[in-house]
């Protein structure tokens, strides 16, 4: 049964600055059995923004205002049936531990374009950072402040 889309949640992959990862890496981290992965049935994100700004669709959806069962991704525990999730590659310093906004210019522009188009299509959907639901640094920048800076 589908539910009304309520949130677009922005995430980071929590991978070191400058290290690209692939959709296969995400699938392995999320869907492989522990200890390799988390053992989830689906990845945590609908779309991923690579370091070069390319946006890759990880989970198909029909781009309407509802989240159907087959569209659910595992980005925020307890909220996924009303969310879409987008992730940018990066989010931690080169040490692999310290939260850091590592978005490249290309990623920043791609995220801005994606979010503005999304907001134009779904103006009632709240756009938030993962850290607004969980005690995490993800996505390693202040999403409400950034939204204001881009006119949303």
Radius of gyration: 14 Å
Order of helices and strands: EEEHEEEEEHEH
> How many β-strand runs?
9
Largest sheet, spatial ordering of strands: 5-4-7-2-9
What fraction of the residues are assigned to beta strands by DSSP? 15-25%
Question: Structural class per helix/strand content?
Answer: alpha/beta
| CATH hierarchy class name | Alpha Beta
The low-confidence parts are: none
Protein model, in words:
The protein has 152 residues and is of the alpha/beta class. The protein has one domain: Peptidoglycan recognition protein-like (Lysozyme-like, 3-Layer(aba) Sandwich). 22% of the residues lie in helices and 20% in strands. It contains 3 helices and 9 strands; from the N terminus they run E-E-E-H-E-E-E-E-E-H-E-H. A 5-stranded mixed β-sheet has the order 5-4-7-2-9, covered by helices on one side. A two-stranded antiparallel sheet has the order 1-6. A hairpin with a 5-residue loop joins strand 4 (47-49) and strand 5. It is globular and about 40 Å long. The N and C termini lie far apart (31 Å). The mean pLDDT is 96.
